[in-house]
Amino acid sequence: MVAASARLWKTSPLTYIALVLGVLASIYPFYYMFVIATRSLDVINSVPPPFTPGDAFGDNFQRVLDNDAANFLKGIVNSVIVSTVVTFSVVLTGTLAGFAFAKLRFRGRNGLLAAIVVTMMVPTQLGLIPLWGMMQDLGWYDTLYAVTVPFLASAFGVFMMRQYATQAVSDELIEAARVDGCSTFRVYWNVVLPALRPAAAVLGLLTFMDTWNQFLWPYAALTNDNPTLQVSLAFLSYAYYTDYSQVFAATAVGTVPLLLVFLFFGRQIIGGIMEGAVKS
Amino acid sequence: MALATPARPAPPAPARAPRHRTTGSAKRARWDMKFSPYLYIAPFFIIFGIFGLYPMAKTAWMSLHDWDMIGDHTFIGFDNYAELLKDEYFWNAVVNTLGIFVVATVPQLILALFLANLLNRSRLRAKTLFRMAIFVPNITSVAAVAIVFAMLFQRDFGVVNWLFSLVGVDPIDWDAQRWSSWTVIAFMVDWRWTGYNALILLAGMQAIPRDLYEAAALDGANQWRQFWRITLPMLTPTFVFVVVLSTIGGLQLFTEPLVFGNGNMRGGTQREFQTLAMYMYEKGINSLNTAGYGAAIAWALFMLIGVVAAINLALVRRTVK
Hints:
The complex is a heterodimer of chains A (280) and B (321). Chain A has 280 residues and is mainly alpha-helical. Chain A is built from 14 helices and no strands. Chain A has helices at 2-8, 13-37, 41-44, 57-66, 72-103, 109-121, 128-138, 144-148, 155-168, 171-179, 184-213, 216-221, 229-239, 244-279. Chain B has helices at residues 21-63, 79-86, 88-119, 127-135, 142-152, 159-166, 178-206, 210-218, 223-250, 255-260, 276-286, 291-319; strands at residues 65-67, 73-75. In chain B, a hairpin with a 5-residue loop joins strand 1 (65-67) and strand 2 (73-75). At the A-B interface, helix 1, helix 2, helix 5, helix 6 and helix 7 of A face helix 1, helix 3, helix 4, helix 5 and helix 6 of B.
């Protein structure tokens, strides 16, 4: 029996070959991005195409910076501002509401929680056109309010924090704090928030990356005068679609921050995603 | 409104100076227990109500009007929807959306299942490394993915056509036909999502009790039989989750075809790859005087997602039994 189960679960060399192929397919486009970003245009437009990085990145990126049409630097600054603000707010509102749903009793709790789960399934594009009109009416069109305020709280954030708080925070601890005279907010701040920290960190990372990568809404609500990074990239790629090295230099610069985040926190991010899948 | 700063945490129940200390604080505590929960969940419901629910309802209202974003609104009942049914560009967008969805999703889910099964082997070395590597495409922005893949499939200097030339195939003008543009867009979608879905499926596989497999092995079931008879049926809930998420996301496809077509909202010169989301944008935002018609497209898209998700659910439930 031991032999049988051992044989069945063995990893063969074929397993590794298939996995390595999968890894190469995942990595190659990144590699290719850096190859094109560091090559001059005449090298790119040759046959066969280049397969190794060059040294023209400085030139290429200088053209991006000199380019008034795309406002790339402003796009980076805007993306940093928007992603940071949204991330902090989503974590704060998510942990607060998650704590309330997991640990406090109140009328309508289950119904409201179910409503939150339902909103996660609703396609966001459904409200796009009126939301766009609303931005015009509020005077938020082409301002950072338009891409920040609607995202300050997320159903996913509330739900994820609720799931985690249910099992990570012990009722006894909360009860003890309450007996000591803590208000619910002090319980949240001193007991619940520290316990939620690992999950809140994952939520923060996911929210940051998601906001950084948002496209459709910023594209509708902003112009190339005041873009986010992704919007700037899109305009750059439309206008300079023959100057690939410039477009790729910008794309690479926009991707590196995410790669760094993933390099440091990839394990937590993956853990959070896989855990979330099993629970929901 | 201080909108540039994140929403402040809801303050604790306001405390009035109590006359008698004990009764006052007891009252305060009761007040706190009763109303604070609503304060804590309020930020989400306020934001969602204003920027989520209200626009959705307004989309429905707008779709019953001849609605000019900066002009008149005339109530016309279901005329927009009646016109949709006769609109060849609408049906073109429906075909493109569904076509790209099938071309992208079927191979993606099969591949994800295959990868998850490989990663589920016990005693696999470098587990974390493999997981991180197949997940990493998911962290890139869709715009970046579209830019990179558009170049890979570029007609004159792209790597793909160069590889084809080595085996004697003439260069393909990828964005000029339906099938070829769909293929490129499917590659963009699959590259970004296959690893993500593989990890979700892997999580589901790891929740399956191991002794089921050992019992099956004792009965002489080989790996394939185990996969069909144990892994797949036990994986159904996770698989349903992945399929529904892929449906909701896949049918809203927008960025990949837009960037691939250099920002042309019509998706190619002959609308070869214009999706429903792009058509909605074209009618509802690019031309302001047809906003009502755009809103009708938005609801049509929503209904399409509902129908396809329901069909997929039924299919999955039936196949894996």
